[in-house]
Design brief:
There is one protein chain. This protein is mainly alpha-helical. It has five helices and no strands.
Length: 157
């Protein structure tokens, strides 16, 4: 559900902002968002989520409906950030791209805590490595927003 919701979020937000507002993120940041989201998805395999005693049956209609609703909610939050940063604070150019990179990189990661279980998230606490990976990707995204991608590239001597 997390993966489908994130994909819907990215596609709708970037499609509308590119066509309607001529806004896009640099290619490097889009790739970085995808890599960080994949890192968050990979650690689901070592999570403490309880496994059902009976085999689960696929409920594709429910899965797609809930994913679409979550994706639209994430998209609405992204548009809220975009319009507040652009219209209220007057941000443009690279500063607006930085704000939107951090928001789009961070917002779906916290959805993973609510989609990992079919019940309340605190009924089965996340494993240390799961929590560490999610927080680690957020810290990395924050440093990327503060220092820029050039900080992480090799400097010529």
């Amino acid at each position: 559900m997390y993966r489908i919701a994130s994909t819907i979020h990215f596609l709708i937000f970037f499609f509308i902002t590119l066509l309607a507002f001529d806004f896009s993120l640099p290619d490097r940041l889009i790739i970085l968002i995808a890599v960080l989201n994949d890192a968050a998805t990979l650690v689901i395999s070592i999570d403490n989520a309880r496994i059902s005693k009976r085999p689960d049956k696929w409920r594709l209609g429910q899965l797609l409906t809930l994913s679409f609703i979550l994706g639209l909610c994430l998209c609405a939050i992204s548009f809220g950030h975009y319009f507040v940063a652009r219209d209220i604070f007057g941000e443009t150019g690279q500063r607006l791209q930085t704000i939107m990179y951090l928001q789009i990189s961070s917002c779906p990661h916290f959805v993973i805590f609510s989609t990992r279980l079919s019940t309340w998230w605190w009924k089965s606490m996340p494993s240390f490595w799961f929590f560490f990976a999610i927080i680690g990707t957020q810290i990395f995204a924050m440093f990327m927003s503060i220092y820029g991608i050039e900080f992480f590239q090799a400097q010529p001597m």
